[in-house]
């Protein structure tokens, strides 16, 4: 297997924001997801979901997790995703939660 590592950063919106999608003919390991609250005075919550596209099912990794003002939380799902699967984040307030996701991608041999 030939792998590559990447770090993706985006701001979450009040609608589900797709942060990462596994490319065609790849498998990916998601070891960590950071949620950082940029709000200077209030806690903000975020929901992180994983869409298993082959099973057409969405799973909550965390649901409405409060992140304190000017603080962060780390999720360590250690998920193995298949081609077409994706991670989405929904925030309480637009542009207050910054999401940083690490992914290790591997090209499928078949």
Structural summary, described in words:
It is built from no helices and 9 strands. The mean pLDDT is 94. Helices cover 0% and strands 65% of the residues. With 110 residues, the protein is mostly beta strands. It is elongated, with a radius of gyration of 14 Å. Strands 1, 3, 6, 7 and 9 form a 5-stranded antiparallel beta sheet that branches. Strands 2-8-4-5 form a 4-stranded antiparallel beta sheet, with no helix packed on it.
Briefly say what this structure is:
0% of the residues lie in helices and 65% in strands. The protein has strands at residues 3-11, 17-21, 26-37, 44-52, 57-67, 72-75, 79-82, 86-91, 97-107.
Key terms for this structure?
single chain, 110 residues, mainly beta, five-stranded antiparallel beta sheet, four-stranded antiparallel beta sheet, elongated
Shape, per Cα inertia axes = elongated
The arrangement of helices and strands along the chain is EEEEEEEEE
Main structural class: mainly beta
How much of the sequence lies in strands comes to over 45%
* Major sheet: 5 strands, antiparallel
Q: Work out the number of β strands.
A: 9
Distance between the termini: 11 Å
Count of discrete alpha- or pi-helical segments spanning 4 or more residues: 0
Percent of residues in helical segments? under 10%
Indicate the low-confidence ranges by residue numbers: none
Can you give the mean pLDDT?
A: 94
Radius of gyration over all CA atoms, rounded: 14 Å
